[in-house]
Each structure stands twice: as C-alpha cells, then as structure tokens.
TrEMBL record:
This is DUF7847 domain-containing protein. It comes from Sphaerisporangium corydalis. The keyword NAD does not apply. The lineage of its organism: Bacteria, Bacillati, Actinomycetota, Actinomycetes, Streptosporangiales. The keyword Transmembrane applies. Residues 126-392 form the DUF7847 domain. The chain crosses the membrane at residues 144-165, 185-211, 243-269, 276-295, 331-364, 370-392. It holds the Pfam family DUF7847.
Amino acid sequence: MSDGHGATPSTPPGWAENQPPPYPGQGGTPWASPGGTAQPAGQPPSDDVPAGQPAPPQGQPAFSPPGQAPPPPYGNAPPPPGQAPGWPPYGPPPQGGPAYGHAYGYRPPPQAMRPGIIPLRPLGLGDILDGTIKLIRSNPKATLGLSAIAAALGTLPVAIGQAVYYRSLGPLLANPASLESGADVPLGGLFAQFGGALVSLIMQFFLVTLLTGILTRVLGRAVFGGRITIGEAWRLTRSRLPALLGLAFLTGLVALLPLVLAVAIVVGLDLAGASVGAVLVAALVLGLAYIAYALFVSTRFALAAASVVLEGLGVVDAMRRSWRLVGGDFWRVLGILLLTQVLAAFLGGVLSVPVTIVSLVVSFGGQGSLTATVVTTILFTVGGIISSMITYPIQAGVNGLLYTDRRMRAEAFDLVLQTAAIDQQRLGWVTATADDLWHPSHAAGTTGPRPTGAPGAP
C-alpha cells in the first residue's frame, strides 16, 4: 500500500513516477488525507473529515490532490459563499435568469437554420419584413429590374392623363383674371386625368399579379440562399403567365361585381324618388359593407399567385388553395397585408414627392405649352417608376413569405425545407431541383400526383 505520493504497480502508462495515480475505480489508490492513511477502494471513508464537511461517497477521495481544486460538494451541502443554492459550484446563474439547477447551467435553444433570406421555421412579422428586404438586396437585378418594367407600363396612362389635365389649364394660367370672372375648369382635362388614373389602376392590378408570380419564383430560390437572373426567372415563369392573367381577371371580377351591384342599388333608389337622406344612408352602408367584403376576398386570395407559380396549379385550384391556407390564420394575414400596404404607400409617397413638386413647377411655369406638357409627362413617369419599383417588390415579397409561413404552420413545410437545405449544404450549391420542393406532395402528410404543367410533371 502506497502513501499516495509514489508510483505503484497499477500506475497507468504515461504517468510520471511522482504523479499520483487516478481516482479509485480506474485501477489506482485513493488519496490519503493529510496526516492520515489512505483508504482502499471499496472501503468506507475514514473519519478524518473536517467538521461540517459531508463525507464523500464510497470510493471517492475526501481531499483533492496537491495543486488541484477541491471536488464539488455532494448531497445537500451548503453552497460556497456568494453562490446561489441549487447551482453547480463552478459558476453563478446567467445574469437576470432564473436558477434552473441544471448540471451545466442555462443553455439557450438552438437557432433555426437560415441558409437564405429567412430562418426555416414559422415566421413572425419581423422575419417577413426582414426577409423581403433581403430578397431585394440579394437579387437586385431581378426584383428591381422587373419592377421598373412593370412600373413604367402601369404609370404611363396616369402620367399622360395628368399631363393633358395640366395642358388644359394653360388658358387659365395664361390669364389668371379669367378665374375671378367665374371661368370653368375644362372638363376634358378632368376626364383625361380621371380616365388615365382608372386605366393605370386596372393595368397595375394585372401587372402586380404577374410581377408577384415572377418574383415568387425568385423567392423560391432565395429561401435556400440561391440567386436567379431576370432571364431565368422569365424562362421558369412564362408558361404560368396565362394562369396568372386568368387569376387576375377572375379575382378582379369577384371583387368588382358586388361594387357594381351596390352602385346600381344607390342609383335605383335615386331614380325611384327616394329622399336624399335615404340615398346617402344606403350609399354609406353599402360602401362600408363593400370595403369589408373587398378586404375579406383580397386576403383569402392573397396567396393564389404563389400557388400558381410554385405549385403549378390552375386558376380555380390556386384560389381554393389560397382560401384553405389563409383560413387557418385569417386575421393575422389580414393585419400583415394591411400593414404592408400602409408601409408601401408611405414609402412610395416619400419617394415621389420631389418629382411631383418639380413637375408642378414645370407645368404651371410653362403655362400649358407643349414643352411643359412633355416634360411633365416624363417627370410623372419617372416619379411613378421610382416609387413603384420599390413598393412592388415589397408587396410581392410579403405575399410570398406569407405563403411560405402558412405552409410551415399548416403542413410542417419547414421540415421539408430544412432537409433540402442540409442536402444542398452538403453539395455546396443550390440545385434547380429546389423548385420542385414547393409542390404540395412534399408537405408533411400529403401525397398525390403532380398536376399537368407543374415542374417535374410527366
């Protein structure tokens, strides 16, 4: 039996002769207490334990070897001074956190995978807005370039109508005294302004639907960290353009028919000789009812464009798909869409203010001349393009990420995305087969053949 300070026949290889052997249970001799004798392995500990210190468990040393920290207390021993009860002796709990008493202290939950613009888990409002900004920054040519083309087409009618209106004011501006004599503003200019705005509104409705579908294809790759060019986005989406146009026409029809019916009722009351008060009350009630209806329908069908492009569905099937996805979280989707509209309108207004001021100065300063009219048209077009090329991608990105979020929550689609992201990380790039993952057959618990025309369909 050794005194605990010399080598023994059981010393493991690699240990120095003057180094103590390991603890009992590993083939070595236990440490001897200062001034006492060592206890063999498997024997009860000696009584040479300081007062107030609990006896160590069977087979464990009472004291630490020279030059090493003492072992942690056992059982219900009081903690060292300044240490919270229940915590291990090697550190205090996290600042401001509860004392969990876990052997290794508090550990935060693991972060979700984020190979691209969003974390692969159900998304919050901040994730959706941040992912939309990252979509624009990671694919600026595809997002801003396509939006600029759509904005130029959608802004041109309203710019022309505005220019015609300013030109019609030329005689009045050249002779301001005519305004004091009661001269009327030309109705032709007003009709041109109103007609241009109406045509532009209709065009923008179709253009935004098409743009949302095309940018959704860009988003499908950006979720995995991949990038896509304008040419590739167009090549992958052009076969879905008829379905997108049909979707825009059908949703517009569903939204406008009640409005036509409400206007017919109000006009009928007026022609029937109803009082002015009755007509106004009917118009107010029907107007509020239509606003509620329009919000309900637009929210229910907000995810249809993404379903047309990413899932290869037809018009009616895509509308049904969007209806089902939104149905599980209608009020949240409505709130995010309304907030997006407010943010987009505010941002578009801020961007278009300088150009609008300059165009007004040029128009009134030129007094309706041909040069002033042309310059005004150009300025209005440029202002509309600058404003819309920022707001269009924001609306399209939010709609696409809402579609992704609803699939994660309703179909556990985040598990599919995570598995695909791991495979792509192993390969080192984002493959084109990532586009096929968006089909509903890849969602948890869903099966079925691909529809005709879908990516990968026979």
